[in-house]
Amino acid sequence: MGVRVVKFGGSSLADAQQFVKVANIIRADESRRYVVPSAPGKRFNDDIKVTDMLYSCHDLASDNKDISEVFDKIVERYNGIIKDLGVDLSLDAEYAEIKEKLINHASRDFAASRGEYLNGKILAAYLGYEFVDPAEMIIFDNNGVFLLDETVQAMRKRLENIDRAVIPGFYGAMQNGKIKTFSRGGSDVTGSIVARSVNAEIYENWTDVSGFLIADPRIVDNPKVIKVITYKELRELSYMGATVLHEDAIFPVRTVGIPINIKNTNDPDASGTMIVSDDSSEEASKYIITGIAGKKGFASINIEKAMMNSELGFGRKVLEVLEDNGISFEHMPSGIDTMSIVFNASLIDGKEEAVISQIRKRVNPDHIEVEHNIALLAVVGRGMRKTRGIAARIFAALSHARINVKMIDQGSSELNVIIGVGEQDFEEATRKIYEMFVFSEEEE
Ligand code: ASP
Q: Which end of the chain is more exposed for a tag (fewer CB within 10 A), N or C?
């Protein structure tokens, strides 16, 4: 029987009631043998995540201030869960040791990691699974760079004879023994590493939504769930602002093709989103497009010069000026005598005049301007490769809505079309494209 690795996010483990749901999910399928918990997250909107309280303790201790008030709240959260679950467990010795270390200026990473550590202890006791500390197996070098191969080797060895285990998320240790965490949300990465190490048939990532949505629900009303998405598509959408899964959670499983299933702890029967290999035979979405995501806050430098096309080294010189000024660019649409460079607007803050005058000096353009308040929208979908008329449909949707398109860029993989519009048109453009591809196809 295949093995499943299951990771549960903070809101899935925020209180005893959530723990009960988690245990039911795990017990419903015997192959769910390795469990990766986050620290307790928010129970309600204004609640504070345990990880954030631990960071506060660290900051207070660095200022030599008393941590007791905040630390007591953390203890209260865990003891509340233990009591409500009715598990026979006391973490008093652990609390005392952790508090002592925090007061004595333990590192920020150590402080944060205790959220997962303590939650893992409770979950292991509640499930009757063995607790395995990731500090023994997840390895970083002494500069804090994560070492995948060494980790997989160590983890395989450590878990070899352990049938069922709880492995806290978010942290490991450097070769010198010091605790090191991934960046925020990093339990997703731990789950992926465990899945890779035990050759899981699937990595289930349990959270509080039923998967990725085709568009941002703050913009589009009740968008549909993406049923299947490839690693590459996911990267395109995440880069443009879609969040659910930590960006680094893809790479440990990608090369070996273990699928990730995003599932909802509060609605376990929903199929969620399946993230699969780029060459998977899974059908592309029935909507041709897989998702739409976008971001505001871009600017572009627009340059015009007669006969630019035949001037050798023109582009290089312009890009060198940007490089010298630390501006990395996103897109570079060009015409015969025009060239535009689109980049994150914050990168040119305070240097606009200098950059323009340097470009003037280098290439002597007929016209140059900086345009602000640009939003970029990515329409992503592997189904677009095989379908004609995608661009026509996108632009018909936008033109009906009287939205002016400033830029268009189709990636060479034909996996995405990037569209630049004014920031004021961003939401409407997203809605129109969504309607064009999802609603209209629904009716067909
Ligand atoms: N507890 C950590 C955080 O809040 C890691 C995680 O939940 O994945 O960022």
A: C
